[in-house]
Specification:
The structure is a single chain. With 237 residues, the chain is α/β, with parallel strands linked by helices. The protein folds into two domains: 122 residues, Response regulator (Rossmann fold, 3-Layer(aba) Sandwich), CATH 3.40.50; 91 residues, Arc Repressor Mutant, subunit A, CATH 1.10.10.10. A five-stranded parallel β-sheet has the order 2-1-3-4-5, with helices on both faces. A three-stranded antiparallel β-sheet has the order 6-7-8, with helices on one face. A three-stranded antiparallel β-sheet has the order 9-11-10. α2 runs parallel beside α3 and α6 packs across α8. The longest helix is centred in the middle third of the chain and has 20 residues. It is elongated and about 60 Å long.
């Protein structure tokens, strides 16, 4: 039996530094990826909307349209995983990237080896999630969980969740009345190790609470269990 070889993963790299862009292109091509380069945020966003890529590697500081704005526009239409790159090292910049739906964040300067490992990790996670797509729908009493939109709906109202917030709420809802630890949630939702001083998960929980309250959700309550993690409790109807 002849086995058809799997097509290489398609990566769109959006980087305005021509030297770094060429380095990214040559390294990833050498590792067997199908790489497309763009140097402008607006042009890169247009291509990401028109074509199917397995992953987008995007700088934050771009001409035409910065990476955060491009990511915000893209997340309204596409679920393609995005790794942001930036020399901006402040915590607020990382939080802004994850809030917009970034899957990972590479602070410059970084090694080609680290970049490759992170790309492989994101691609493995996406493949795993696709394989798990046959699981039963989330059975929340009020909310409709819509996977292809990464959002929940109560009646005709959409909560407006980011992909990360959606993954977090879906996991908590499927494990209602069970405390899920922060290290577990970091691995399953944020796909990285837990750090004692990292407040990204707390920020996502706060956003989910606010968005659920805005649509009138009353069937559950997202609670903090100090020193342990979070749980979704079911409320009596």
């Amino acid at each position: 039996m002849q086995v058809t070889p799997r097509a290489p993963a398609r990566i769109l790299a959006i980087e305005d530094d021509s030297l770094l862009a060429a380095h990214l292109h040559d390294h990833l091509r050498g590792r067997g990826f199908d790489v497309t380069l763009r140097h402008d945020g607006k042009e890169g966003l247009g291509l990401a909307r028109e074509e199917d890529f397995d992953l987008i590697l995007m700088d934050i500081l771009l001409p035409g349209c910065n990476g955060l704005d491009a990511l915000a526009h893209l997340r309204r239409e596409r679920k393609v995983p995005v790794i942001l790159m930036s020399a901006l090292g402040a915590e607020q910049d990382r939080i802004a990237g994850f809030s917009q739906g970034a899957d990972d964040y590479l602070p410059k300067p970084f090694s080609m080896g680290e970049m490759e490992v992170r790309i492989e990790a994101v691609l493995r996670r996406v493949a795993y999630e696709r394989a798990e797509a046959t699981v039963e729908p989330n059975q929340d009493p009020q909310l409709d969980f819509v996977d292809n939109r990464n959002d929940v709906r109560l009646g005709e109202q959409w909560a407006g969740l980011t992909p990360t917030e959606y993954r977090l709420l879906d996991l908590l809802s499927r494990n209602a009345e069970e405390v899920l630890s922060k290290p577990f949630l970091y691995q399953q939702v944020l796909h990285r190790a837990f750090s004692q001083h990292d407040r990204v998960l707390d920020m996502h929980v706060s956003h989910i609470r606010r968005k659920l309250q805005a649509v009138g959700y009353s069937a559950g309550r997202l609670e903090t269990v100090w020193g342990k993690g979070y749980l979704l409790t079911r409320q009596p109807s």
